[in-house]
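Narrative of activities, Objective 1.

The group set out to show that a structural description can be obtained from nothing but a protein's sequence at a throughput compatible with the screening campaign. Below is one input-output pair from the validation batch, recorded exactly as produced.
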Amino acid sequence: MIEFLIELAVELLFQGLGELVVESVARVFGAPFARRDQHHPIVAGISVLLLGALLGEVSCWVWPHRIVGPGPYPGLSLLISPLVNGLLADAFGAWRERHGRSRSYLATFWGGALFAFGMAGARFLFFNVR
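Output recorded for this entry:
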């Protein structure tokens, strides 16, 4: 009888932890796309950065070559890409607001910049740190 109760308690613990992990992952990766009033900005920022890094890593598997050849200043994409993408994301967010739609965290300057920094950082590490 004691063994049954211990097994039941362990099973419930693992199910609860599993549900917590799935819920946390869904919340973290859903935060960049939700309305800005639904999630904390720091959680959304970390989520956008991680999503960019994840997609940057995936892009290295899909396209395992440099997009632009190495230049005189390695890592320049870590500065230029976030600035340009941040401006583009902010313009897209403003367009959405003008058309009566809500702006997500990803459609802000910081969201676009963090996403691009994560993606550029993953590609930079893949090609320069081995």
